[in-house]
Amino acid sequence: MELPAAIKGEVMFGPPGSFGPDMPGASHVADAPVPRTEILDIVTTWHYDVADVASRIKAPIHYRQAEHDRLWIVDEGEVRGFAAALSASARVDAAMLRDTGHCIDFHTLGPSLQVQQLAFAMQCAVQHG
User: Fold this and answer.
1) pTM of the model
2) What is the per-residue pLDDT across 105-114, written as a single tens digit (0 to 9) for each?
3) Which of 12, 19, 22, 70 could form a Cys-Cys staple with 26, CB 3.0–4.6 A?
4) DSSP secondary structure, 62-98, as one string
């Protein structure tokens, strides 16, 4: 499914001030169609399946939820619940990222997220040799 640029800008971005003046326009280079099944899954089965799927993930997980995400249910309880569901994961680092929208990388805090991701990967590499 292709979403019009105006709708993507509304859904994928947080409030004014959380992204630069070139956004969301400059982000459209990364636009790609979304599989219809993915959109349907978000609103139909994901909430029922997530605990089972998450409990089987063994890889380390770095998870950030955007405070102003308009695709997902967003609150601290959801972040804690998702982290707890990753019970088999070798390591979980889950947190809410304030003042940003769904496409965190295109927000002002994008570089901060990317540094956190790199640090997490480096810590995992050191831990697991």
Assistant:
1) 0.86
2) 999 999 999 9
3) 22
4) EEEEETT-SSS--SHHHHHHHHHH-TT-S-EEEEEES
